[in-house]
C-alpha cells in the first residue's frame, strides 16, 4: 500500500511539473510573439485619426503587430524622439523636411515608405483661371524656406515664372529667372495666406490653412501637379538608418500602403485634399 501511494505521489508530482512547464512555455511563447511598434505622429484631427485606425487594424490583423501611437505637438520633437530611440518610427513629415532636419541636426534618419501627399493650391477670389491674372498682379506666397520654394514651383508649373535650375528644389524669390507677367511676389507668413487672399490677385496657400479658413475649392485656380518638383512633398514613414531593413517596420509600411487605407483617404478627403502617394507616378 505504501509503495502504491508513493507511485501515485510521484505521478501527481510529474503532472504538476509538466503542467507548469507547459504554462511557462505558453507564457514564454506569448511574450516572444508580442510585437509592438511605437510610431510618432502629429495630431491631425478626425480625418487623420480615421486613417491611422485602419492602419492599426491592418498591422494587427495581417502581421500580428500592436501599433501604438505617440502624439507630439512640436514639429521638431518626433525626429528627436526617433533619433534617441524613444520611439521606433514616425510619420509626420515629407522628404524635404527630413532632408533639412538631417542637415541641421547631423541626423541619420531615413524614409522607409510613402504615405500621402497634400497638394498645395493657388487660390483667387478675383480671377477664375491662371491665364486671367493680369500683368503686374500681386501673388502672395508663404515666406518660410520650405513652403516658399514649394509655392514658387507651383507658380513655375502654372507657367507663370521660370526658376534658375541651379537652385534645384530649394528656390527663393531671388531665383526667379523669368517673370513674363511682371508679377509682384509678396512673401507672407503661411498662416496668413487666407487673410491676404482678398487683397491680392492670388495666393498660394497650404491645404490645412485653406481648410481652416473655409476657402471653397471653387477658388482654386491651379493645383500642384504630381511630378519631379512635387515628389519631395510626399509624406513618409521614417526610421533610424540602421533599422531601415527591419521586417517588422516594413510590415508597418505595408499596413499603410493598402487598398483599404487608400479608400479611407479618399472617403475622408473627397475634395482631394490628401492623396495616397505610394502608387503615384512622379
From TrEMBL:
One of its GO terms (cellular component) is membrane. It holds the Pfam family Lipoprotein_9. The keyword Lipoprotein applies. The keyword Cell division does not apply. It is found in: Membrane. It is a lipid-anchor. InterPro entries: Lipoprotein_NlpA (IPR004872). Its main location: membrane. Belongs to the nlpA lipoprotein family. This is Lipoprotein. It comes from Lactococcus hircilactis.
